[in-house]
């Protein structure tokens, strides 16, 4: 129990750390931070050129994890952490936009459009949940970078069209059209890598 925490297998170790964090274990929180802060910082930096904002978002992410670790339902911890970080980045950008336009009234009162209903996950979306591993990563490398970014934001990060548009700095219509093209290209790339694609008999 004491001494060294189990760190060998990422998923099991992360789940144990998150359970401990939910109990208020600060050492487990430090371990979780040591394990994940580096790649989260790198990935946030790829999406945001403001180092100060990246630092704030990273800190915010782990504050959120500390408060909501009990809400982790056993999903892959890296994906869960990145979804939190991506949403914190969207919030930070939204706050920055508001500050930059203090004179303007806030458009679109109410919540309409903020949370769009998620479509039922397709087979390729389930495959995309394992984005960093195996053939999916290879397939994503074969599609153009701007399409890849949209897929990451909307499928992997789980952001709405509006949130993805804010995150990537492009119009919502562009997010939608790129997402359609990206899925078509991804399907084609997956088929090339795996002729019997998502679950046919071998």
From TrEMBL:
An example GO BP is: DNA-templated transcription initiation
Signal sequence, start to end: none
Keywords tagged on the record? Sigma factor, Transcription, Transcription regulation
Residue span(s) of domain RNA polymerase sigma factor 70 region 4 type = 136-186
Keyword Transmembrane listed? The answer is no
Database matches in Pfam families: Sigma70_r2, Sigma70_r4_2
Q: What positions does the domain RNA polymerase sigma-70 region occupy?
A: 32-99
A GO MF annotation of the entry reads: sigma factor activity
Family per record: Belongs to the sigma-70 factor family. ECF subfamily.
Full protein name:
RNA polymerase sigma factor
Per the UniProt record, the source organism is: Streptomyces actinomycinicus
